[in-house]
Write a structure and sequence with these properties.
- This protein is an alpha/beta fold.
- It has two domains: 181 residues, Glutaconate Coenzyme A-transferase, CATH 3.40.1080; 237 residues, Glutaconate Coenzyme A-transferase (3-Layer(aba) Sandwich).
- 28% of the residues lie in helices and 19% in strands.
- It is built from 15 helices and 23 strands.
- A hairpin with a 2-residue loop joins strand 16 and strand 17.
- Helix 7 packs across helix 8 and helix 14 packs antiparallel against helix 15.
Length: 443
């Protein structure tokens, strides 16, 4: 059969594709922009009276699929590796919260262990481009864990969307890999960059002060990373590289201004390497069909041994809470999960072992209108530690930069107190004395 015959024979309605899911299955959707529209997932949800004991695993889910609603829990068990979006955070607060601690680099590997233990038939529903002249569809703007789950799936359902741009990298798959195709043109979600506050601008300025020519950066999500990109445009820095999990906001402007060239990268030289995207249309247009940009799965992009081969890797990530020893919590407020494990630790460790590398964790000094310090004597009860203290490098607040590399715990405590909000420093000093870190009044 020609690829066209294969494609035509597997082209079907969303309702027919949904019938591939059986009782006892586990099915996945990809991260963010790789996720299909409501069409197929809602068709699966509509089968709730026909099915039983089906697991649904997802991560950073943008779309409010009806399968996420409480009335579907008798049929579908919901599992997530990253909350963050508003409707996901509502689930996190509910009795249906069911978090799985996947690190970005190991999601596929961890699932292989889960599949061996529970022996569930597996499927994935992903979004792809229409096939090219050789019969290859393209994953477009997300390659996070999709291939790893495809490799372990008994069925793969593709929503074919002509609005999904083709991208370079590990993104092309022949139509023969797929079990079903559902054609459905739908818009690619775009999210404008949130404006930065005065505190966030100060933090971004301090981060940029730590950067040097030829650094290879990884930047997380949010207003501060976007402000970092904006400040880099006129920083005078040159020949930066990008090896990241998510494309930084404003990447296209940094390339246009010659700030990012990737000229001195050792791994994928000359290439911006990433695993997924979330941003505005201007960013998507730059990343699409751009031979300078390579999308790779996180098993490669976040692989610590790959990151460590690169020189001068700078990992820049946000945090929720950090204690006086440098333990970083970036995913929960006490027992309440807010985001997920993600790729932060992958890049922190990779940067540590990179020649000239360093990791920067940033957080505003306070929250709740300056009534709660984010720098604390002890991590909150129930909080999940994302980065252990022995890998924490620089910590940045609007009040300064703490360098924890190579420092003792008492020295770390003093560094952390110096960058805390002034109104909490005396309280933190008391906490440091209680923990035996300092013996006399310092502030």
């Amino acid at each position: 059969m020609s690829w066209k015959d294969i494609y035509k024979s597997r082209l079907m309605s969303a309702q027919d594709a949904a019938k591939l899911v059986k009782s006892g299955d586990c099915f996945w959707t990809p991260l963010m922009l790789g996720q299909p529209s409501m069409l197929i997932i809602d068709a699966i949800a509509d089968r709730k009276s026909e099915l039983k004991d089906v697991e649904y695993i997802n991560c950073l889910t943008l779309r409010p699929y009806k399968i996420l609603k409480p009335e579907y829990r008798d049929t579908f068990t919901f599992i997530s590796g990253f909350y963050s979006t508003p409707h996901m955070q509502e689930i996190a607060k509910s009795e249906y919260s069911n978090f799985v601690p996947y690190q970005s680099s190991d999601a596929g590997r961890k699932y292989s262990h889960r599949k061996r233990v529970y022996n569930r038939r597996t499927g994935i529903v992903t979004q792809v481009t229409p096939p090219d002249d050789h019969g290859y569809v393209n994953l477009g703007l997300d390659t996070f864990y999709t291939e790893a789950i495809m490799d372990q799936s008994e069925y793969i359902i593709a929503e074919v969307n002509p609005n999904m741009p083709r991208t370079y990298g590990q993104t092309n798959f022949h139509v023969s890999r797929f079990s079903a195709f559902v054609e459905n043109p739908n818009p690619i979600p775009a999210v404008p960059t949130p404006p930065a506050s005065e505190v966030e601008i100060k933090m971004a300025e301090k981060v940029v002060s730590l950067l040097r020519d030829r650094d290879c950066i990884q930047v997380g999500i949010g207003a501060v990373p976007a402000m970092i990109s904006k400040l880099l445009e006129n920083s005078g820095l040159k020949d930066l590289g990008i090896h990241t999990e998510m494309a930084p906001a404003g990447t296209h402007r940094l390339v246009e201004k010659g700030v990012v060239t990737c000229k001195y990268k050792k791994v994928n030289p000359g290439k911006i390497l990433l695993a997924f995207t979330m941003g505005d249309k201007e960013l998507y247009d730059f990343l699409a069909n751009n031979p300078m940009v390579e999308y790779r799965p996180t098993s490669y992009a976040n692989n610590i041994s790959v990151i460590a081969q690169e020189d001068n890797v700078v990992a820049i990530n946000g945090s929720i809470e950090i204690d006086l020893t440098g333990q970083v919590c970036s995913e929960s407020i006490g027992n309440l999960m807010r985001t997920g494990t993600g790729g932060q630790l992958d890049f922190v460790i990779g940067a540590f072992w990179s020649n000239g590398g360093r990791a920067i964790n940033l957080l505003p000094s306070t929250t709740m209108n300056d009534t709660v310090s984010r720098i604390v004597p002890y991590i909150s009860k129930g909080a999940r530690v994302t980065v252990p203290r022995h890998y924490t490098g620089y910590v940045v607040t609007e009040y300064g930069i703490a360098d924890l590399y190579g420092r003792t715990e008492p020295e770390r405590a003093l560094e952390m107190i110096k960058i805390a909000h002034p109104k909490f420093r005396e309280e933190l000093e008391k906490g440091a004395r209680e923990r035996g870190f300092i013996k006399k009044k310092t502030f």
